[in-house]
Amino acid sequence: MTAKTTRNKGGTDYTRGVSREQRAINRRNRLESSLLSSQSYLPSVQRFGEPFREGSIVAFEEKSFGGIIKPGQLTYPVSTDYAEDVSSWVVAIALFDGDKMLFACSGIPIPHGRTRQRLTRFVTSAHLVTQFNQNRNKDDKLRVAVRLPDNTATDGFLGLYDKDIAVVTCLDFLEVCPIDLDHKAKPFPGGCLKAAGRAFNSGSLMAMRGSLYQKRPLEPRNTWVSDSQDISKAVLGGPLLGWDNNIVGMSLDIYDSGDANLRYTFLPMDILCKCLKHFQILNPKKDFRGYALPRDVLSVVPSGFMQTICRLKSHGYPIPPPLVLEFNGRLLNHFEECFGELLPWKGFPYGDPPGGSEKCVWNQLPKEVVTDVSRRVVSLASFNGYVRSFACTSLLIKLGSNAKQTVILTSASLVRDCCNEDIIDDSLTIEVFLPPNQRAGGTLEFYNLDYNIAIVSLKKNFNAICPDDIFTESAKNSSKKVIAIGRDAKFGILMAASGEMKCGNRGCKLDCKDVQLSTCKIKKAGIGGPLINLNGSFVGMNFYDGSGVTPFLPRHKIVKVLSQVNSLPSECGYNHPMPINVIGGTKKGNQKNKWPVPKPYWYHSELQANVHALGKHIGRRLN
């Protein structure tokens, strides 16, 4: 249903006061188009990501090393009476831009882990990530492929990495046996070893002999040198085998010491195992709430998702765990979630708005009430530089004894410090939006953290607004039916959810004992928005705690707090923002009220821990 059809049915946001409405719509159209264009994409990448080159570098040429190892020719003892074929699990990993190979190395399978999704993971050299980042270009279509021991190839996904190693993941349980991370390799007698690796194009397993290099001052630890002086990047990410053919480490990179001989660096097996366990991929948490990368561990931005990551960073959202973007995971508890019945503003140019969770809510209100609501409910956002800190709804109200000052009533969560919610962050900038094109900066004037109230002034006047006089008590309404109002954080679409007031506040997660509840179901964007009755009278200010009901601070408590002030500090020459010293009662005695807001987090049911998986997942045990 178009905005015109909605308007004809009496369901349109009647925001007025824009004399050049069509020009405003055209500007928004151009803005929307620019957000999707490469011209706006590149500055966002430069601000929140890595700058891209025009195209990838020249194609990579694989080089062989040592000799080709046929199946059964190189084995190592798994037990006293059984030996495993090395050629059955070493893989080749290659980086491509289209059909052009940019890099190739080897990889070692590691235990599957405990995700519900069947996955096979390989550990390899972090040099693969270096090549991925260096070759990334504006097309952003680099891909990773894995050549298996049976000479078939499958797609791989680059994920976590550190300065030494990287992890590549493939879908399904592939026919390769993972190594045992608990294996303790024996020392190298005499420093003799073999290095194995697989070529991607031919699929051949190769091996060469070498020996430990005696470290000189200022040279890296754990270095080995090939007996034949063969130098090939195919050996990177491949296993190093000791005198008894047990795995003693993994080759990492080629080291140029400045003399005539090039050498390889490697990671001993015990350190490799510690690194992989530190990555926390083998035993993931039950869900991704509060997920953060382990210390000194980074995550590759998947191909095709750089703009998505830049947008997430600009909105202050957490970066998704590995594979969540590629496997269509969802971000929950974000500010763009809509609720109730949606009401596009007049002249809405972006097609039909998304379907809401309710119908026939706006029809419960008289037309003049809908008109007033559309002129007094605005969207607010606070920013730390270019990064959004918070977004919510707010209400234009009259303030002061003469009710001539128009200010914005909203939740103090808008300006709380992200690291310490008991204080405000006065470095944040505030943006106010009233559709279709009225935008202005805001100034925090007053706040009360106990009742979570903030008063924001406009830096420039808005046209055709209708501020609410919440200080004048309206006629009593015996009905318990109420409607929670909000504005969408992205386009400013009005949202309304209907419900009834509840007796008491049992089940509320907030500390404030003065909070009441309604059965309206809202989302985070509705924080700070008004709760009204069917006559349009202000009942209270809404909050969100994720409990399924909506806490709200009743009108008389808000009036009690705001009655302490009559004029704005900025107009009287006082420092602002100023606290309003009215202490709110808590459920737990004399401690301060807490107003927690559910944090955004990523969700993917198949990538989280399988709670039914029992026992420890290990690979083969090497003697």
Automatic annotation (TrEMBL):
Region (Disordered): 1-23
Protein name, per record: Peptidase S1 domain-containing protein
Organism classification: Eukaryota, Viridiplantae, Streptophyta, Embryophyta, Tracheophyta
InterPro entries found in the cross-reference section: Peptidase_S1_PA
Pfam families: Trypsin_2 (PF13365)
SUPFAM superfamilies: Trypsin-like serine proteases (SSF50494)
Organism of origin: Sorghum bicolor (Sorghum)
